[in-house]
Write a structure and sequence with these properties.
By secondary structure, the chain is mainly beta. Strands 14, 15, 16, 17 and 18 form a 5-stranded antiparallel beta sheet that branches. A 4-stranded antiparallel beta sheet has the order 3-33-32-31, with no helix packed on it. The longest helix is centred in the first third of the chain and has 16 residues. The radius of gyration is 27 Å and the shape is globular.
Length: 451
C-alpha cells in the first residue's frame, strides 16, 4: 500500500511539473485507482500528444483516459463455488481413529471422482452402513447405485461411465473390488482377502487408484494368522482390467499403518503408495517403501507426522503432510515433499510453527496440464476451526495466500483424500457433516494464477 501511494504521488507530481492541476484527479476513492484516468491532448487542437514529443512550447490539458489502474487479483475466497446436494439418506457418523500423536475423529468417508463432461461421481456410506455411488450433475443427483450392508471404501470412474468400487463387508470380514457398467450392472467382482489378515478400519484408511490397465487397492488390515495376529498393518493389491489379481503387491506392509495414499503418474507409468507408520519399517512417512520424513513414533498408535494428499508433478509427485516438532525430529506444521521417479525425495515447510494446530493438509494440481506447475494447497488449524487455502508453485513458493477461507463456507474432511483436478484445470472436492443429508461440492477456479 505504501508503494502504491508513492506511485500515485509521483504521477501527480509529474503532472504538476507539466503545468497541470492535481485537482484534475480524484485519488480519494479505491486505493490504487486514479479517477478519472487521464490522457493528454495538445491545447487548442485535436492532436494527441505523442510520447517523447512534449516540449516547453506545448500546452497540455487533461482530458479522458490515462490507463493507470491498479487492480489486485481476486481473493481465494472469491474463486470458490459451492453447491449443496440433498442425499436420499443421512451420511455415516464420525468414527474414531489414530491421527497425529493420538486418537482422533474422522468425518464420513467420501470418494470423489470428476468426469470430463462435468458430472461428478461420489462414493459414500449412510448411517445404516449401506454403501452408495451417486452421480451428480450440478446440485442434483442423476442416479444412485446402492450396495446394502457394504460400506464404500474407494472409487475409480472411467471416461465411459464404468466404475470400480471397493466394498467392505464388516460382518464377514471381506473386502472386494467390483467393476460396474455405467448402468450399474456387474462386470466382475474380486475378493481381495489374504490368508493372514482382514480389512479393519479401527485405524488407517482405504484408497483405490487406476493406471495402465491396473487397479491398485491399499487399505489397513488386522492380522488373523501367524506373527501378524492382533496387529495392524496394510495390504496393497493390484487387479487388472479383467478382475484378476496381479503380482507386485503385499499382504503385510507398514505396521502400524496409520494412514495410506495411492496414485498413478501417467508420464512415469508409475504407481505411488504412501504410508504413515509408528513402528515398521520405521517411524514416519514412507513412499514406495523409501522414507520421506523421519518422525517420532511409539509403536503403539502414536506418530508425529500424518498424511494429506499426493498430486502429480512434472516427472515427480507432490505430497502434502503435517508434522509436530519433536526432540528427535524437526516439524513445522505443513510440509510439501517432492518425490522423483527413483523415490528420492526432499521437502519444504509451508508453515513455520511447532505443528501443534495444523492438520488435514490437502493438495491438487491446478491447470489442465503438468507444465502449469501450480497447486492448490490447504490445511486446517484446530485451535480456531479455520480452513486455509493457498496457491503454490512446484518448489513450494507461495503464489497466493495463505488465506483463511472459512467465511466462504469452505470445508473438507479429516484426513480426507478428496481434492481432485478436473478436466478444465479447476479443483473440486466434497464434504459432508456426520449424519447429515447435505453433501457439499466445492470448486476452485485457479486459472488467474496459471503462468
Amino acid at each position: 500500500m505504501i508503494l502504491l501511494i508513492l506511485i500515485i504521488v509521483a504521477v501527480v507530481s509529474l503532472i504538476e511539473q507539466m503545468g497541470l492541476s492535481a485537482a484534475a484527479f480524484d485519488v480519494s476513492g479505491d486505493a490504487g485507482r486514479l479517477t478519472p484516468p487521464v490522457a493528454f491532448r495538445l491545447a487548442g487542437t485535436d492532436q494527441r500528444a505523442r510520447p517523447g514529443a512534449v516540449d516547453a512550447g506545448m500546452t497540455l490539458s487533461p482530458t479522458a483516459y490515462l490507463p493507470i489502474v491498479f487492480s489486485p487479483p481476486p481473493g481465494l475466497k472469491e474463486l470458490i463455488a459451492k453447491a449443496t446436494v440433498a442425499l436420499p439418506h443421512p451420511l455415516a457418523e464420525a468414527t474414531g481413529s489414530f491421527c497425529t500423536w493420538g486418537g482422533c475423529s474422522l468425518s464420513p468417508r467420501l470418494y470423489h471422482e470428476p468426469l470430463a463432461d462435468g458430472r461428478t461421481f461420489v462414493g459414500w456410506t449412510d448411517s445404516d452402513g449401506n454403501g452408495h455411488v451417486s452421480v451428480l450433475s450440478g446440485n442434483a443427483i442423476e442416479r444412485t447405485f446402492d450396495f446394502p450392508a457394504e460400506p464404500v471404501r474407494g472409487l475409480v470412474v472411467h471416461g465411459d461411465g464404468t466404475f470400480a468400487v471397493l466394498l467392505w463387508r464388516p460382518n464377514s470380514d471381506v473386502i472386494y473390488l467390483a467393476k460396474r457398467q455405467a448402468n450399474g450392472d456387474a462386470i466382475w467382482t474380486t475378493n481381495l482377502n489374504s490368508t493372514i489378515a482382514v480389512a479393519d478400519f479401527w485405524l488407517g484408511d482405504s484408497r483405490l487408484a487406476y493406471g495402465n490397465g491396473l487397479y491398485i487397492a491399499y487399505f489397513t488390515v488386522r492380522g488373523v494368522a501367524g506373527g501378524a495376529t492382533g496387529h495392524y498393518g496394510d495390504q496393497l493389491t493390484y487387479v487388472d482390467d479383467g478382475g484378476h489379481i496381479q503380482t507386485g503387491g503385499w499382504d503385510w506392509g507398514c505396521s502400524h499403518s496409520l494412514a495410506q495414499l495411492v496414485g498413478y503418474h501417467p508420464d512415469l507409468d508409475q504407481f505411488m503408495s504412501v504410508c504413515a507408520s509408528d513402528c515398521y519399517p520405521g517411524q514416519g512417512i514412507f513412499a514406495n517403501s523409501a522414507q520421506v520424513y523421519q518422525a517420532d513414533g511409539n509403536c503403539g498408535g502414536c506418530v508425529s507426522a500424518q498424511l494429506g494428499q499426493v498430486a502429480l508433478g512434472e516427472r515427480s509427485w507432490k505430497l502434502a503432510f503435517s508434522a509436530l516438532d519433536k526432540p528427535c525430529c524437526d516439524g513445522r506444521g505443513i510440509g510439501l515433499a517432492t518425490i522423483d521417479e527413483s523415490n528420492q525425495s526432499s521437502f519444504k515447510w509451508l508453515t513455520n510453527t511447532d505443528g501443534g494446530y495444523e492438520r488435514d493438509p490437502v493438495i491438487a494440481r491446478l491447470g489442465p496440464g503438468l507444465p502449469a506447475d501450480r497447486y492448490l494447497v490447504g490445511w486446517t488449524t484446530v485451535n480456531d476451526d479455520a480452513y486455509w487455502l493457498a496457491v503454490i508453485d512446484g518448489a513450494g513458493n507461495f503464489v497466493a495466500g495463505p488465506e483463511n477461507v472459512t467465511s466462504a463456507g469452505a470445508r473438507w474432511g479429516n484426513r480426507d483424500d478428496s481434492f481432485r483436478t478436473r478436466a478444465d484445470g479447476s479443483v473440486s472436492w466434497v464434504q459432508g457433516e456426520p449424519a447429515s443429508t447435505g453433501l457439499h461440492l466445492f470448486r476452485f477456479d485457479g486459472s488467474a494464477y496459471l503462468p
